[in-house]
Amino acid sequence: MQQVIVIGGGVVGLTSAWWLAEAGYDVSVLERAPEVGSGSSYGNGGQLSYRYVSPLADEGVPLKALQWMFQDTGPLHFRPEADLRQYRWLASFLAHCRADVNRKTTAKLLALGELSRQGMKQLEVVVPLEKFDWRDAGKLVVYRSRDVFEKAAGKPGAGEIWSPADCAAREPALAAAEPLLAGGIYNSGEAVADCHAFCLALAERLREHPRFRGFVHGAARRLLADKGRVTGIELDDGAIVAADRYVLAAGIQSRNLSDTVGVTLPLYPLKGYSLTAPIRADDVAPEISVTDFERKVLYARIGDKLRVAAMVDMVGEDLSHNAKRVDGLTRQVKETMPRAADYSKLSVWAGLRPATPSSAPIIGATRYDNLWLNVGHGPLGFTFACGSASLLAGAMRGEAPPFSLEGLTLKN
């Protein structure tokens, strides 16, 4: 059987490795960090939003983005770079900001979300849910603007429509925010979990898989290619590792690696922040997964901790913490859920979400017949990981996909 190296030990790379091993490939994983899941998978929002997907590119977003950029606590912060990739990505993003394009992308992501939900159910057999604090929490999207709320509530199949009083009664963590809300929309079947713990648990099971050939720890410097095929991966220490096939699933690092063999990936790192605080016995932490729609802030109870994720910073591959942004987010969290956790013990994390202009990931082949992609999941890597891995394994085996992959493949 052919040997495959998966480049990237985050949630997308690990699920790819698992599905490929299950498909009969001999699989290794190349990871630059000492521990898997320590990059963008480490401190993400923890929400598994299979039925609630909202591509960033949509009609009206450019105007909103201009307003947000001048707000210290706004959802978006932009810093110009001396990098043409930033401007190419922005130009393509603006081209996707149309209602008809958004509808098509949303439909595709919903299909991928359902496939991912089914995939996670399959994994329950080998990775017990309690290993990564999985909970079927349901999802509540709350709105502050009456107009925005009514528009969302008027869409077919939106979900259960809750008044501000309903929101506070059914999710007591929102009691302080009730006067600020126009209403909420609730959907069951959505979950929360610890992505990092999931990565560790899946890696443990991978090590026991008869087709798994182990983890290779090292930083990939470049891909090597000859006569239409990738021939190896050169590491920072000069070593070269090789296999029959290669899968790029290395988050934002994928774009630099693909560039070394002339494959351009339309990825940009959207930096996001998360706050994590311990929940005490007398705290009123949310039981439901909550999204504050206008502020683009996510709240999830993961085990005995409150996880809050928010913000998009377009500042390149800069992982430093912007104190003004963090302070603003912290104030918003304390205003919305003042009694949800021990905010005196707050920890801050930032990660780079590898996003495409359309918000749809890129899965499948490249012009090199042995180089494959599973990249560009943005903030929904955990949500889409299992479905993306399933599609990738099927494509590599030449199987027909369960739905059209138009919009989910690389345009050469």
TrEMBL record:
Q: Which UniProt keywords apply?
A: Oxidoreductase
Domain FAD dependent oxidoreductase stretches: 4-393
In which domain of life is the source organism classified? Bacteria
Which source organism?
A: Massilia agri
Q: What EC designation does it have?
A: 1.4.99.-
| Primary enzyme class | oxidoreductase
GO MF, one example: oxidoreductase activity
Output the Gene3D superfamilies linked to this UniProt entry: D-Amino Acid Oxidase, subunit A, domain 2 (3.30.9.10), FAD/NAD(P)-binding domain (3.50.50.60)
Q: What is this protein called?
A: D-amino acid dehydrogenase
Into which family does the record put it? Answer: Belongs to the DadA oxidoreductase family.
